[in-house]
Write the structure tokens for this entry.
Amino acid sequence: MFSSQNLISIGIAALLTAGLYAIMSYGLAIIYGVMKVINLSHAGFLMLGAFMTLVYFQWWHLDPVAGAFINLPVFFVAGWVVYRVLVRRVATALPIASLLLLFGLWLVIQNLAVAIWGGEDQSIITPYTYKALALFGFRIPVTRLIVFGVALAVLSVLHFALGHTFIGKALRATVQDPTAGLLVGIDTEQISAMAFGLGTAFAGFAGSLLTLLFSFNPDFGGSFQLKSFTIIVLGGLENLAGVTVGAAVLAFAESYAVLFMRASLQNVIAYALLVVALVVMPGGIGQFLQRRS
Amino acid sequence: MRLSVRAVFAAFVVPALLLGLVATGQPASSEIKIGAVLPLTGPFVASGQYFKQGYTMAIDEINKAGGLDVGGQKYTVSLTILDDGSDATRSRSLVEKLVTDQHVNFLLGGYDTSLVEAQEVVPDQYKIPYVEGGGAASEIFKRGYKYVFGTLASIYNMGKFTTDFISAQQAAGKLPKPLTIALVWENTDHGKDYETALVEETQKHPDLFKIVLNQPFQLNGSDFSPLLQQVKASNAQAFLSDAHLPDFITMHRQYLQLGLYHQFVSYGGRGPDQRGRQALGTGADYLVAAVWWTPALKDPASQLFTEKYMQQYHQIPDWFQALSYDTARVLFQAIREAKSLNGPAVRDVLSKLVMRNSLLPGGVIRFAPDGQIIAPYVMVQNTPGNTVRIVWPKKLPEARDPILPMPHVQ
């Protein structure tokens, strides 16, 4: 169990999982960062992203990766509409209002999916679903490699856009200080709508990529939502770059924990990390390390 | 005077009659009300739908034949199904609702073990017979309930049956001796039953079996890759997992993605399920499963059921539909033999019942004193082209040689 071969193998798997976790948490982080709203409908959009990918696959034989890129604009528009019609009305109310609204929205999406696709497990099998690459004596599943590569590429583009475009800078400014943003002429209302659209687009995108790895049904996404929340808390709630760190910490913790504890307790890792992060390092790992040094 | 007699009749006798009806809970019409709570949404939705189909088929048959004969009177049978959303707490309260609000005469069980365990507290409280075909853990029948009967042979027996099969293959030179096993099981009474049987057999026959990894996993898990990394590191020759359908699909998909290979792979009772085969494609080929029933059984009753089911639902039935169909038929036979709709009377008949035209291997259903069926399993192996062959017990005329060690599938 503790052979170097096994430890490296677990490390590779953890790294690939971290890419997946990062891409599925980014949407949640953007929305929280800009609006201070915890998007409880995130799981619903992840699931809907998976089902839309199934539709593209069944109707046009479209690969899930291509489906993910189609989902980006489709879900951006959907998120923008949800913000304008629903979320805007509770954006300045007490947090419980947005929590309940978005939880309700999740249930509506879930039931819509049951009505349209039924409640059974669905899956997408591509020619590379069961293929693996042999590298330096390690077998790496092609699907995990694709998810990692695509996630890395999209997150790099996002980081570039956040740092070098007007909208990206406006978004970051709003995350850091919404009032100051307003004072320097940023239309925070538009930025909020854009952030909700972008967050939803990332959920739909991640949902597509998840179909490469998992089967799914209308209940899909719930456990990933908890993990996403843990990740953004670990990364520092208002720190977009911290998401990658949070994703890596959770993925490595989950993967190596199986060496020391029962696999049935795997989900406890996320809960335990969430509690520890909220109590010991509410500003995230980065701020915690800075304070220590 | 005549007026006062009418008044007395209206004031006392009519309400008394109505009250009597309410108190006994008997329906006014010649109808038998049967209730069932099934997971029609949530993780077990596929199995819940299959159970609904099986129950409906059995009830439609009875009604088409003019109803159920109870002591010379024909009763039509109605079925009320409620959806528990695969949630145990909701499941229990809905069964109670069926009894108190819907006044059902009898209960058919839900699916799976965890939900049946939640439901089974109600029947004894109200003395209403409850026959289930969706929970197989022996723990269900260790709680001393008198009104609970199960048509699924225990998971403990499934584990023993699997080791019997393996040892026969070892004797035939198809599997190594001792066989090193990576054993994973869902963290429920269902999984615990399977693990107990495997561990006992390993202790009894150290020359035949050696467990090199023994790990429980969370029911309805989302990612099994860390666990499967451990399976890989254990270098076992066989991989045995006790999993329900959704976990089987997720786990085996990830098993194949990680490029794992074992000479013998079994997910307990999963593998030949149509849902699993659609979800996994060729990845499910050559898996071996111990099942309660299979359409590959060539006896006339099984063939007739398969034909009828395919005509009605246009798909191949799995054991879920066959077992639920038989579960309803067992209840009907007990009501018929009891010649009464009285719960305790039907319960007494169930405890001694011998049903001889069952679909199950051997064709007979009878219950042990604890209420669980005494019945054998059938070992099947998936073969390419969405086909299944019976590979054990050898005495069955349909039995063929298993393809072992399993070929590599991609």
